[in-house]
Design brief:
heterodimer, A: mainly alpha, ABC transporter involved in vitamin B12 uptake, BtuC, 11 helices, 75% helix, B: alpha/beta, Rossmann fold, six-stranded mixed β-sheet, four-stranded antiparallel β-sheet, 11% strand, elongated
């Protein structure tokens, strides 16, 4: 039971990453391979500010804002130019961005293991022998709120429907007065913000290094794929599911890497049985 | 063709000189230089493996280092079991090929970026689980003992160069055979590929397997070069670095792949002072290459090496007489089967297609007789293309039957239908824009080339060369018949829209079809060109003994071309008859006049 609660809590980190990733995919039909690194960049800014005596909550907000801005810059300078010509080239260029950010962090901040204090206070409580800190709860809150908010936003608001319409038929969308570039930039900004929130909160749960975010991104991506890639709800559920599977495996074996391998097997089986993903086809 | 052959020769000469230089220099290089060059060769092979997968077959792998790692660990393990030396690398490579094919399995059900994500996931599993197992040794690091024959770094480098040469030859054979054409077609458009008789799924797995094979060879060489194998050499970051090198080199450009791989690997080894900035330079190039120079390094390289040479356009090419050309591609005389004593080629009965709740086609029955030109008209969304797709096997009708020469088409898989003598064109041009016109024509005849297998392709056996020559001749004949011989070596995307349409018809004709199905061949073609094309089609019918089924919007054009017309509306049959009957049918008139013009405009 504690393993499951633990799984839900760590899964919410993957869920938050996955929701942002799916949002960007829905709004521009490309993979943002820099999704994790953009958040990590925000994290390093927050960490740097906090080390220079900036209050932790302000550092957190600043980090999220920086991540959002970086995402917007990437969209405006690269994605916008490439997405119509070659989606593959656009994806490759986001990989380039990921490299640039990762190595910048690496050269600037070094490889030492770092810590970041929880932005939302240091309270914690115990369930059985499991300690639940404020950051873990906040990850779950942010993930659930973002997923629910986006699902409603995409289905119920005019602008949300435009986001989906903009990628299904660009010409038609433009003729109907949808500003395709604007909706795309919006989803990237949103993706950057969620990535920043996720990265900083995850860092305040564990320690971090310039390369640790990539591993979280891989799990987030797996969650998105499991959830069907276009479903916000699916991404959220997929993230939680991965957290639970990993926690259960870890509780029963000490074999290194077994947790993620179990997730991979689940993914393969799920994709072969249901290629569209668990929630695929649904547009929520 | 002459220019191209010349380039190929120069390219080959270039490689021979480069390898000769490399082998000769072996006598006076130091062990250290040999080691550095060895790492360069290894990464070049690894990058070639990804170039094949991404550049040729269009399947993205973000976990390529895992296959290299499998090759390395396996070679080490086989060496430990006292398997003799070159066999260790070969067995390891075969294992890597097998694993790659398995990892490629999801590509049968999902596409593009989704598959990319599963390969990334596999890369992570390999890094953290497979390669971290104590099945190797407890330290997570395996030691490889070099046998006597390759005791020195120089000897390993020599082995690596031989390996690279072998892979370059395999790569060339693949590119210039039906195997490679199948890869390119799957990369560019899966539906066209299937229409040409390519088995899309097996083709993808084949690409994964070949890619795994190359990667495994790289891994085996790596094991002998470093003499230790451990997980940190094959991380997800290594994989992403390979992707970077392939993109910078230019997708699908083997020369670019080698150069970009070699440059980064050697900088990293030789100039340790700036080595730490290499990743950032690489990342910067990766980010900017797609924006500034999408063709990558390979393109620049090609220009640098080949353009200064005079163009040898004047080389004599035997002219193909039109009559001879027609003879060459006229369909083999297939007698109508005796059991079906009718002149009808295609008979559709009560065909219905539903997509979810949407009825795309209902109760459509039609008949196409031998030698006729039959028109299919109707407003957008009437179900015309859906009907074509039902005949071609891209959608499965829920009701009804379609027979071709008395054969039940619906019982046949898509790729098998292509061999029956049915050829079609697509509404959006179905040719590979990046390939030359001639290569597209050769690919169009894919199902005719099935007569040779993988081994023949790799070894260039006489029967493979014979088939290839036949394809080339037929390709040229088709271009002659359509009148496009001037563009034989031009890339399709450089052709005018009208010529692209013509090239598509030529591709369809090159297969020697009986039934030619044309989906809006006049779309986007000017009125004058349209008339010419229509005239040419009528002539072709007589010359090649063709039966034609054509979808078109322009009613007067269809009326002048066809002897019989079917009109669809909202998925059903609205009217049929001679051009006069259909044109004067009140339902047809009201459908065409009543239809808001805006709808036509938006969809066209």
């Amino acid at each position: 039971m504690t393993a499951i609660i633990n799984g839900v809590l760590s899964g919410s980190a993957y869920a938050l990453i996955a929701v942002g990733f799916v949002m960007i995919y829905k709004g521009s039909r490309i993979f943002n391979l820099a999704h994790g690194e953009i958040g990590a960049f925000g994290l390093f800014i927050a960490w740097y500010l906090h080390n220079h005596k900036v209050p932790v909550l302000i550092a957190f907000v600043a980090g999220v804002v920086v991540a959002t801005l970086v995402a917007i810059i990437v969209e405006r300078t690269l994605v916008r130019r490439l997405v119509d010509r070659s989606p593959l080239a656009a994806v490759a260029s986001t990989l380039g961005v990921a490299f640039v950010l990762a190595y910048y962090e690496f050269l600037q901040f070094g490889v030492n293991i770092k810590t970041f204090p929880p932005p939302f206070g240091t309270f914690s409580f115990n369930i059985g022998n499991l300690t639940v800190t404020s950051s873990r709860i906040m990850l779950l809150v942010f993930a659930a709120a973002t997923a629910a908010g986006l699902a409603v936003f995409l289905k119920r608001t005019k602008f949300g429907l435009e986001v989906t319409a903009a990628v299904s038929d660009k010409t038609l969308a433009r003729l109907s007065g949808i500003r395709v570039n604007r909706t795309r930039m919006f989803v990237w900004a949103l993706g950057g913000a969620t990535s920043g929130i996720a990265a900083i909160l995850i860092a305040s749960v564990n320690t971090f290094t310039p390369l640790s975010t990539t591993l979280v991104l891989i799990r987030g991506l797996t969650a998105a794929l499991l959830g069907g890639l276009t479903s916000i709800t699916g991404a959220f559920v997929g993230g939680i599911a991965i957290g639970v599977v990993e926690a259960l495996v870890t509780a029963h074996t000490t074999v290194q890497g077994a947790d993620y391998t179990a997730v991979f097997v689940v993914l393969l089986v799920a994709l072969l049985l249901r290629p569209q993903g668990i929630f695929g086809g649904s547009e929520a | 063709m002459a220019l191209k052959r010349r380039q190929a020769k120069i390219g080959a000469a270039f490689i021979v000189v480069a390898f000769a230089a490399a082998f000769l220099s072996m006598t006076f290089t130091s062990e250290y230089t040999a080691y550095v060059l060895g790492t360069v060769v290894v990464s070049a092979i690894a990058i070639l493996s990804l170039n094949l997968l991404m550049g040729y077959a269009g399947q993205v792998s973000l976990g390529q280092a895992a296959f290299v790692g499998i090759g390395a660990f396996a070679a080490a393990q086989f060496a430990d079991w006292n398997v003799p030396f070159p066999l260790t690398i070969i067995l390891g490579a075969l294992l890597a090929a097998l694993v790659a094919a398995i990892v490629g399995l999801p590509s049968l059900r999902i596409r593009g970026l989704q598959v990319a994500a599963t390969t990334l996931a596999f890369g992570a599993v390999a890094q953290y689980f497979l390669f971290a197992r104590p099945w190797t040794t407890n330290s997570g690091q395996v030691t490889v003992n070099r046998p006597h024959v390759i005791a020195t770094d120089k000897a390993v480098l020599l082995t690596g160069l031989v390996g690279l040469l072998v892979i370059l030859i395999i790569d060339r054979q693949i590119r210039h055979s039906r195997i490679g054409r199948a890869f390119f077609s799957v990369r560019d458009r899966e539906d066209t590929a299937a229409a040409r008789g390519v088995k899309v799924g097996p083709t993808k797995l084949q690409a994964y397997a070949f890619s795994g094979l190359y990667a495994g060879i790289a891994g085996g060489l790596f094991a002998y070069l470093l003499q230790t194998v451990s997980a940190p050499s094959f991380t997800v970051f290594t994989s992403l670095g390979y992707v970077a090198a392939v993109v910078i080199g230019g997708l699908g450009s083997w020369s670019g792949a080698i150069v970009s791989g070699a440059v980064f690997a050697s900088i990293q080894q030789l100039l340790s002072g700036i080595a730490r900035y290499v990743p950032i330079i690489e990342a910067g190039l990766l980010t900017t290459t797609p924006v500034l120079r999408p063709e990558g390094l390979g393109y620049i390289l090609n220009r640098a090496v080949f353009i200064p040479l005079p163009a040898f356009k004047s080389e004599k090419r035997e002219e193909l007489e039109l009559s001879r050309a027609i003879e060459l591609i006229a369909p083999p005389k297939r007698p109508l089967s005796l059991s079906v004593p009718t002149r009808s080629l295609l008979i559709a009965k009560d065909v219905g297609v539903r997509f979810g709740g949407l009825v795309a086609l209902h109760d459509v029955s039609m008949e196409v007789r031998r030698g006729e030109i039959v028109g299919l008209i109707g407003p957008n969304g009437a179900g015309k293309s859906t009907f074509f797709n039902a005949v071609g096997g891209f959608v499965k009708p829920n009701t009804g039957s379609i027979h071709y020469r008395g054969k039940d088409l619906l019982a046949l898989p898509t790729h098998a239908r292509a061999g029956l003598g049915i050829a079609r064109t697509f509404q959006q041009v179905g040719l590979s824009g990046a390939q030359a016109v001639c290569e597209n024509m050769m690919f169009a005849q894919h199902q005719l080339a099935i007569e040779y297998g993988l081994t023949s392709a790799l070894l260039s056996t006489p029967d493979m060369r014979k088939v290839e020559r036949q394809l080339q001749t037929r390709a040229r004949a088709a271009l002659e018949v359509i009148g496009l011989t001037d563009y034989t070596e031009e890339r399709v995307l450089n052709l005018s829209h009208g010529n692209q349409r013509l090239a598509e018809v030529a591709a369809a004709i090159s297969t020697g079809p009986e039934l030619l199905m044309l989906d809006e061949p006049f779309a986007g073609v000017g009125p004058e060109e349209s008339e010419q094309l229509a005239e040419r089609l009528t002539e072709l019918r007589a010359e090649l003994d063709l039966t034609i089924l054509v979808i078109e919007h322009d009613v007067p054009l269809v009326a002048s071309l066809c002897s019989y017309i079917y009109c669809f509306a909202e998925g059903g049959m609205l009217a049929e008859g001679s051009p006069d009957e259909v044109q004067n049918n009140p339902d047809v008139i009201s459908t065409y006049i009543g239809e808001p013009l805006a709808k036509e405009a938006a969809g066209a």
